[in-house]
């Protein structure tokens, strides 16, 4: 059983329950919101390190290093999903911050604390798809 707001990972993706649910599979039931690919944190005990997640021509494997040979101070060398943290409810977002949600990148338009139902595609006054 899951209650609204709880998160799970299923088939390499992160999901959030919109309301109470039981025995409903993420990706099949509409109760689940797809938050995008699972990030490479310290959680899941899955054996595969998934080396194909980001196949960059750069020989460096450091996730904090810039994969681009460019020295520009751009804050967004890539707008691919996963390059920014996943959107989450009950989180403070400052204007200009970028997040991923539903496989897309979004930029916060105004400072706010997110709520369930205020997902980026639902509130154009708060989020801009980039």
What is this entry, summarized?
This protein is an all-beta fold and 130 residues long. It contains no helices and eight strands.
Description:
The protein has 130 residues and is an all-beta fold. The chain has no helices and 8 strands. It has strands at residues 7-10, 13-17, 32-37, 92-93, 98-101, 104-108, 112-113, 127-129. It has a 3-stranded antiparallel beta sheet with strand order 1-2-3, with no helix packed on it. Strands 5-6-8 form a 3-stranded antiparallel beta sheet, with no helix packed on it. A hairpin with a 2-residue loop joins strand 1 and strand 2. The radius of gyration is 16 Å and the shape is globular. It starts with 6 loop residues before the first strand and ends with a strand. Mean pLDDT is 75; it is low at 42-56 and 64-79.
Order of helices and strands: EEEEEEEE
Oligomer: single chain
How are strands sequenced across the largest beta sheet? 1-2-3
Protein structure class: mainly beta
Q: What's the total count of β strands?
A: 8
Poorly predicted parts: 42-56, 64-79
What radius of gyration results from the CA coordinates?
A: 16 Å
What share of the residues lie within helices? under 10%
Largest sheet: 3 strands, antiparallel
**Strand residues, percent:** 15-25%
Distance between the termini: 35 Å
Mean pLDDT: 75
* Total helical elements: 0
Shape: globular
Features:
single chain; 130 residues; 3-stranded antiparallel sheet; globular
What's the topology here?
Layout: E1 7-10, E2 13-17, E3 32-37, E4 92-93, E5 98-101, E6 104-108, E7 112-113, E8 127-129
Antiparallel strand pairs: 1-2, 2-3, 4-7, 5-6, 6-8
């Amino acid at each position: 059983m899951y209650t609204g707001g709880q998160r799970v990972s299923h088939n390499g993706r992160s999901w959030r329950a919109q309301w109470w649910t039981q025995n409903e599979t993420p990706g099949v039931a509409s109760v689940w919101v797809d938050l995008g690919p699972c990030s490479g944190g310290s959680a899941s005990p899955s054996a595969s390190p998934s080396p194909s997640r980001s196949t960059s021509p750069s020989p460096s494997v450091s996730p904090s290093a810039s994969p681009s040979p460019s020295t520009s101070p751009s804050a967004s060398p890539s707008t691919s999903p996963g390059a920014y943290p996943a959107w989450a409810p009950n989180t403070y977002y400052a204007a200009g911050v970028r997040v991923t949600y539903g496989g897309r990148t979004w930029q916060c338009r105004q400072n706010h604390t997110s709520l369930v139902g205020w997902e980026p595609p639902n509130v154009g006054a708060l989020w801009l798809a980039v």
